[in-house]
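Supplementary notes for students who missed Thursday's class. We covered one full example, reproduced here. Read the sequence, then the structure, then the short commentary at the end.
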Amino acid sequence: MNNLSKDLLEDILSRVPKTSLIKLRSTCKKWNTLSKDETFTKKHLAQSPPRTSKGEILAIVLINCSLRLMSVNLNDCDHPSIKLTGTLISLNSSDKLDITQVYHCEGLLLCVTEDYTRLVLWNPYTGEARWISVDHSKYAHALGFEEGNSCRAYKVLRFAHRVHEIYYVSSDSWRVLDVTPDWKMEVDGESNSNNYGVSLKGNVYWFAQDKEAGGNVPGFLLCFDFTTERFAPRLPLPFESYFEDEVTLSSVGEEQLAVLFQNLHTYEMEVWVTTKIEPDGVSWSKFLAVDMSPLTWFQFFSGGSFLIDEERRVVVVFDGDKNVSETSRNTAYFIGEDDYFKEVDLGEVTTCEVFPHAFSYVPSSVQINQTT
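Structure (token representation):
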């Protein structure tokens, strides 16, 4: 093998299954270095893509404090299906890892443990992980990066009330930010809200409201720019939302932001997708509009994390079941044009603190820089 050219060696090793590749890295230093090379990892992803066929969406869902790899199948619209392919147990441990929050950024996951004393920055594709010790407090988090000349500098934002801190992955260090919020948002970590921030092109976006208005003025889009390490000016949403309306963000690929809006009084639901999104500007296009009152006659409890199938113009919303008085089942709702509506049962609710949270997943070769 040592006599083979680099190109031929890359071609051979790129055909090795992912599970075997992790073990292969310990064979010799040359193979270990090669397996972390960006050219090789792109070739490996092309040779061993996620095991989904046309019409399927590869995703990860946090459900009952477990991370599950998930395949959403829309090939048969009359009988859509969801396959949970297993609990993501890694981090070199055979023990179950209880997770209460998960945030993602282009293939990397930031997980918050049930006792709120540790964060785990993890790449499921490479198996690389970083444990980060924190104090025992319920914070909201965000994961993003600053684009450098030769590499990306990944950072973690955590905040609660007036405390805002940023963690630098490369140096394993924290810095307190000087922030005086004139906005408020119910975010995971401070309540049972499902208002997760969505990472897009390195920055993170949330739905927020004016701090002093008391819900009397429409909400807006709030961005944290990881390059400037500041919150950007408020961005407009394509609808007017007020107190107790449901607004939830998601992503479409790695370039577009999606937002789901459901009116508290009429149950009408709209889904919009960005045609342009930057910290200083946004434009929108309506993706779907549905009157949910004859279909469910309830407002999604958590705002409902959701996925989008652009080809079929279908939205998949993850929430509790329609038994609003006492939810006992996790459910996926398939919603589309012309009154298209299907439900898929995702099993019993075993914890009342965490609603299902799903997001599309594309494996990445991003390396988590380890410190000494």
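Commentary. The mean pLDDT is 82. Residues 38-47 form the longest helix (10 residues). If anything here is unclear, bring it to office hours.
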